[in-house]
């Protein structure tokens, strides 16, 4: 018969040292629990409030003290961008668009990006959009230009949909970054125009304000670089692609790449022109 108490007595050769060892074990266990708890809290970023909207398609999580207007901007921007995506035959992402509004802490443990908003993946593999509500861009938008906050959220939501198709490259491994950023900038502008928030001229002005004028450099320089030209120049290049085919072809290219097709092949078969030819003609037409 198995007797736990008799098992325990096997360790009783030095009975005077036993209480001390037991205390040490208890203290170590407590310390480990506290450490684990701290790691869990820091890793989760103190997001204490969760709102699930539109049948779970949008999740807004916020840290204590996050203002209500930021939460409204988050859900409105995501809603507008998802609507645009559906209307243009984009995919329905498997995972909800999760927007984390970081008011005091960070979105991710060990994160050093200084942008007001970005989209990415956390340690558990969940995609999400991060917004720092105390950083200058967001605060300035909330103070006087709330539609800029909508455009920012729409931009990151489009990245979320792109990521669900598998066409967003990891930093350092960019292949067609002008396309990824250009589509997000151009698409965010269209999202707000379709939503009746901006006129097309306003969308152009706002993109210019956000990203500056396109640099006098060839488009191919921004295939592997996420510098400003990927945004400012990419926007015009993507508008050219849409004029050549349609918005749904943007999603089609993204999906083909996500399925593993070499991107230059996917570009040629989707847009009917090789990327080298397209880039050369685009550069000449500027
Ligand atoms: Zn972007």
Give a written overview of the molecule.
- By secondary structure, the protein is of the alpha/beta class.
- It folds into 2 domains: 44-165, Collagenase ColT, N-terminal domain (Glutaredoxin, 3-Layer(aba) Sandwich), CATH 3.40.30.160; 166-286, no CATH class.
- 56% of the residues lie in helices and 9% in strands.
- The chain contains 11 helices and 5 strands; from the N terminus they run ααββαβββαααααααα.
- The protein has helices spanning 4-8, 18-44, 68-87, 136-144, 146-165, 177-194, 200-211, 228-244, 247-258, 263-271, 275-285; strands at 49-53, 58-62, 97-102, 117-121, 127-132.
- A 5-stranded mixed β-sheet has the order 1-2-3-5-4, covered by helices on one side.
- A hairpin with a 4-residue loop joins β1 and β2 (58-62).
- α3 (68-87) packs across α6 (177-194) and α6 (177-194) packs across α7 (200-211).
- It starts with a helix and ends with a helix.
Features:
Glutaredoxin, binds zinc ion, 2 domains, five-stranded mixed beta sheet, 286 residues, disordered N terminus, 11 helices, alpha/beta
In brief, what are we looking at here?
By secondary structure, the protein is an alpha/beta fold.
Which class of secondary structure composition applies to the elements?
Answer: alpha/beta
Helix content: 55-70%
CATH architecture of the largest domain: 3-Layer(aba) Sandwich
Biggest sheet features: 5 strands, mixed
CATH-defined fold name of the largest domain: Glutaredoxin
* Percent of residues in β-strands: 5-15%
Q: What is the residue-mean pLDDT, rounded to a whole number? A: 89
């Amino acid at each position: 018969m198995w007797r736990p108490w008799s098992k325990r007595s096997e360790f009783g050769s030095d009975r005077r040292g036993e209480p001390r060892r037991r205390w040490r074990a208890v203290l170590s266990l407590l310390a480990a629990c506290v450490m684990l708890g701290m790691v869990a809290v820091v890793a989760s970023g103190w997001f204490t409030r969760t709102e699930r909207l539109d049948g779970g398609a949008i999740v807004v999580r916020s840290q204590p003290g996050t203002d209500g207007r930021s939460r409204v901007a988050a859900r409105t921007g995501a809603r507008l961008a998802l609507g645009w995506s559906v209307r243009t035959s984009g995919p329905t992402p498997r995972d909800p668009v999760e927007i984390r509004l970081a008011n005091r802490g960070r979105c991710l443990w060990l994160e050093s990006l200084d942008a007001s908003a970005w989209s990415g993946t956390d340690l558990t593999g969940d995609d999400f959009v991060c917004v720092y509500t105390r950083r200058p861009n967001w605060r300035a938008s909330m103070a006087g230009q709330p539609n800029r906050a909508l455009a920012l959220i729409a931009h990151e939501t489009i990245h979320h949909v792109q990521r669900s198709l598998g066409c967003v490259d990891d930093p350092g491994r960019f292949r067609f970054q002008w396309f990824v950023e250009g589509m997000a900038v151009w698409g965010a502008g269209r999202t707000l125009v379709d939503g009746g928030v901006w006129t097309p001229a306003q969308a152009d002005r706002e993109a210019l304000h956000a990203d500056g004028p396109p640099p006098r450099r060839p488009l191919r320089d921004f295939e592997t670089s996420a510098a400003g030209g990927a945004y400012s120049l990419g926007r015009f290049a993507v508008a050219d692609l849409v004029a050549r085919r349609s918005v749904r072809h943007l999603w089609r290219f993204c999906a083909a790449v996500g399925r593993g097709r070499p991107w230059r092949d996917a570009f040629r078969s989707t847009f009917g022109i090789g990327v080298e030819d397209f880039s050369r003609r685009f550069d000449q037409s500027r």
